Amino acid sequence: MLSSLPREQQDEIARLAERYGTPALHNAALYTGDDYEPLNKPDRYGEVCMVVRRKQSGRLLTMKKAFYPPATFRLLTGGIHHGESIYDALVRETHEETGLEVTITQFLAIVAYQTENARKTPSFYTFAFLLDEVNGTLGAIDEDEAVESFREIQPAELPQLAEHLEHLTHTEQRPHQNLGNWSEWGRFRAVVHRVVWDKLQSQSNTRASK
Predict the structure, then answer these.
(1) For the whole prediction, is pTM greater than 0.85?
(2) Which residues lie below 8 Å from residue 1, measured CB to CB, with a gap of 6+?
């Protein structure tokens, strides 16, 4: 699953896992075509997913961009530039998209995406981390992110968000830039929500059984 990554990235993943916990590993086959642009951006090989837990409420932070279909919220993500470490991307993207100071609590999951043929080498990766808010005022720093609003949810609402994303249709308002169509984009975006939920729920069940 990770063997297609350069040794430098594999070594960093091992260090992050040692420091923040072993992540769940998930392979996702997306039958969208090999040219599906969100998985083939030339400036990145993957992204970080910021699962931000609010300081006061303990809820998770989701956001909606201005060009998304109505009522479409999701966990925050940001691209990892070529030559940039996963850690540096996580810190940078969290600041740009939330303005919050956070602490990294756990390395939750790695999702590897393949297009068309599930046996092919992954073309894109999502690295999900649980982050706890420490300080700051919520608000996107980078205006180019076009973040329209934030919403806090309980972890138990993650499957509901995934369900909404999976059922976006071709008839939704026109996608922004080169996202393909909303149906394809929604299926892609739903994956990490289910994986994060499964990881959090598994941990909750383990604690309850002790």
Answers:
(1) yes
(2) 25, 27, 110, 112, 122
Q: Which ranges constitute the DSSP H helices of the chain? A: 7-20, 86-98, 158-166, 182-209
Task: Report the first-to-last Cα separation within the chain, whole angstroms.
Answer: 32
pLDDT along the chain (210 residues), means of 10: 87 97 92 65 89 96 92 96 94 95 97 72 90 96 89 97 91 58 89 97 74
∠ CA 92-162-53 to the nearest 5 degrees? 40
Tokens of 162: 């995934």
**DSSP per-residue codes, 54-87:** PTTT-PEEEEEETTSPTT--EEEEEEEETT--HH
Q: Does residue 179 sit in helix, strand or coil?
A: coil
- Residue in the block written with tokens 């996702």: 28
Question: Residue 125 is inside which H or E element, if any?
Answer: strand 124-136
Structure tokens at 177: 């830039």
How many CB atoms neighbour CB 192 within 10 A? Answer: 28
